[in-house]
Amino acid sequence: MHRLYSLAFGAVAAALTLTASSASAASLTRQPYLQRVGPDTATIAFRLDGNCVPAVRYGTHGSTHESAQSADAGRTHAIVLSGLQPGTEYTYLVEACGARTTPVRFSTAPVPGTRSVHFTAVGDFGMNNADQRAVANAMLARKPELFLMLGDNAYESGTEAEFQSNLFVPMAPLLAQVPSVAVPGNHEYVTNRAQPYFDNLYLPTSPTGGEHYYSFDWGHVHFVGLDANCAMGMASQDRCSLAAQRKWLEQDLAASDAPWKVVFLHYPPWSSGEHGSQPLIHREFTPLFEKYGVDLVLTGHDHHYERTYPMKGSAVGRSGEQNPTYLVVGGGGASLRPFETSKPSWTAVRNDRDHGYLDVKVEEGTLTAQVLTPSGQMIDSFSLTKDLPPLPEETPGVTSPSSPVGSEQPGTAQPTTPAPGPVTGNPGLPGGSGDVEDLDPNAPGCSTGPAMVMLPAGLLVLAGALRRRRRR
Ligand SMILES: [Fe+2]
């Protein structure tokens, strides 16, 4: 299992341009983007228009006295920084062919298990238009630790050229300062089974799915990225089959001790938009989400925003149960699509009028989510709560601050008895109301306030390391 950890960021000038110091200086044809970031590592990817051996210069406290050199003199580079300190701000720049980019800052991930996570997510943005840029810049201004791309990241067909023009150019400031992970949409799969997507992004991996599907822990949140195209038979079966992905997903979720679980994939099990709820995704994956206590499922595909009540099977879950909340966050830049049906009973909030993104903060046992337009208008807000066990007492000299969550020895923390917690939310900017629109035509509608209970939460936190971080 590949694991990543969080970054926090300084707000710095976004545009990165090489400052030429020689007549033969190269320029960056693709500005740096942060990939595979952890508490002690970060990959800085970029592209040049010349052939030289570039380096990333980096350091703490505004210095860039350390250096990591690329392995070759090609034009595509992904330089790995290692030996970094968790929860520490670094400045970095790219040095290539006698020129340097403007320095920008980022912070390494916090100590594993840290009970404070801030991330953003959106899908269906890869248009290279003003709406995409506005959403991306608004996300950057929120200074998230992590950005989840929910698919359809490079319209129209996910070609090599479209990744450059419709992802890396318009979102360069964000991607230079915020680590990102992605799942592919259907549009990526138009070109060679999404090969340009895999060529251009450096993603976590899983043993059976490679970069198709994977998981990682970020603070006290377990993230799972799925390639729903595999379920549709769009991928090579030897690389990503539905059966293998389901098997891996079940094992992965069962093995996670993180108190919060977030899954992201492109196709929505629940949606009242143009494409609608995807029955295959619903049938194959939602039982696992329910069984293993997934809190939040993030999707795109339909170009609107929508939040369900916590769902169980084909209906709204009963109050007092812990069930997944499903979001469609497809307003990242592509043209919005108006709802053509009345609001289903399982929909808490939906909006088809505004582009926007999801901003989530998970502090201890409270997940607070906001869906915001680029101008800051609130489309939706809600929170999920659960009780977490107290942090274990520090045992000096037995832990490492860079050890990942889940790699600690079981028994260092005690799971607590699950306790119910509420889901609260605002009415947002409703797009309509009316008839039930369930996958199961016999499913009852919702008339009671949904609720959730906490997950079994054997939190394997390194208390001493966490306290050290908090003292900083
Ligand atoms: Fe899509």
Tell me about this structure.
- Helix content is 15%, strand content 28%.
- By secondary structure, it is of the alpha+beta class.
- The protein has two domains: 18-101, Immunoglobulin-like (Sandwich); 116-453, Purple Acid Phosphatase, chain A, domain 2 (4-Layer Sandwich).
- The strands form five sheets. It has an eight-stranded mixed β-sheet, with no helix packed on it. Strands 13-14-15-16-20-17-21 form a seven-stranded mixed β-sheet, with helices on one face.
- A hairpin with a 2-residue loop joins strand 22 (357-363) and strand 23 (366-372).
- The protein starts with 17 loop residues before the first strand and ends with a helix.
- Residues 1-17, 20-24, 397-421 and 427-472 have low confidence and may be disordered.
- Bound molecules: fe (ii) ion (FE2).
- The site of fe (ii) ion (FE2) has 6 residues, from loops.
- Residues 380-450 are annotated as: Disordered.
- Residues 324-381 form the Purple acid phosphatase C-terminal domain.
